[in-house]
Amino acid sequence: MGVAVQIEPKTKEFVAAPVRKMLIDGKWVEAASGKSFETPNPATGEVLARVAEGDAEDVDRAAKAARRAFDEGPWRRMNPNQREGLLLKIADLIEKHGQELAELETLDNGKSIFESRNVDIPAAAATFRYYAGWVTKITGETNPADEAFFSFTLREPVGVCGQIIPWNFPLLMAAWKLAPALACGNTCVLKPAEQTPLTALRLGELLMEAGVPPGVVNIVPGFGETAGRAIVKHPLIDKIAFTGSTEVGKEIQREAAGTLKRVSLELGGKSPNIVFSDADMAEAAQGALLGVFFNQGQVCCAGTRLFVEKKVHDDFVGTLAEAAKTMKQGSGLEADTRIGPLVSKEQLDRVTGYLDVGKKEGAKAVIGGERNTEKGLEKGYYVKPTIFTGVRNDMRIAREEIFGPVVSVIPFKDESDAVLQGNDTTYGLAAGVWTRDVSKAHRVARAIRAGTVWVNCYNVFDPIAPFGGYKESGYGRELGKYALDLYTQVKSVWLKI
Length: 497
What we know:
Number of helices: 16
Helix content: 25-40%
Mean pLDDT: 96
Low-confidence stretches: none
Number of strands: 20
CATH superfamily of the largest domain: Aldehyde Dehydrogenase, Chain A, domain 1
Largest sheet: 7 strands, mixed
Number of domains: 2
Structural class: alpha/beta
CATH topology of the largest domain: Aldehyde Dehydrogenase, Chain A, domain 1
Radius of gyration: 23 Å
């Protein structure tokens, strides 16, 4: 066992509360029903904290508060420089409390403290800081219309935004949703995933500390069937932003039709990561590991279909397997852990079920292929990092999103075969290409139908670069200037001269 991080007193205090309350209209309140639910520690299976369980009545309170804050409150009428300053202050507070937030994230999600501290928390702060810069630059246009009129456009906030985020990057996904929405002058009702509500609630405290007015951000933890559905159906909510599974995304789109809400969806993926024989094999192997084992494979854009050119297939698999064996698996709180537990018992059952499916389909687990029940890990939700070979692109483990530390290695003949197999999926979120041939890199990047293509790298993100999917991976783009389109609408004004 490695050396565990010493938990900060503030972290212990936060999780020790009898019930963590929800944020509605600037106040921390219990659920209207009085109910609460447990959030477990994935590393041990034990109860970590209790959280207020929101449902339709709580969503109604939150939506009304957000509506009042939008229609009557100071937020969208605030001087842009002031709103910019508040977003910058939020970024500063995230950084100031970075260690505490990282510990909460690791305790609640299971990911390694190395990833929480060095990826999730800095990226969340950077997202608020990036969108703070946009507040003073959201502008309309003047139009060269008939000289008898002055024609111009206004870019205005959408209104009340319902935002439903997943459990794999809880704080970062809250930042991806809240930062652009607030920059544009909207108000929000945020529902964190029931598996990982703690960092969103702690972020709510930081928002209040920064001076965000009451009702501008409301945080309602709860379950999808109750709180999530109520957000989608509520008539006072103007826009839905959802990150999660394709199945739930389709259901949200159907529900939103009843009120014609604007919807943006960032959904699942089964991303191709293509390694050509002329690639730097050492770099490609490390990139492939990062592409599938980062955050225990619980990443929507994970490169879980690893296409390797036939002439180097066997050698590459050997290199990959040896590198994977060196990745320490254990509690996320141990400083040298690189693969932690899965987020929940439900996810453990899902992933181990796919391991059985893969073996029955004829795939061979070169390493892993089972739950990790070594001493000290037996109570947690651990799955050994798994590399399957002998996989065809029509197998279930190559078609369906597993969302765990499982990669399917599939051979290909040439460039056209790689593109054909890479695109043979209902998803289109991301892809990777590994080659020293610049022309080939450009050709394949253009040919792959995916919202993001990484060349000689994988899982690289920055708030400036848009992220979103093709096909059943959703629509709309988060991050970059493109996210402003999700949270604004354009008004034409004609003034007779």
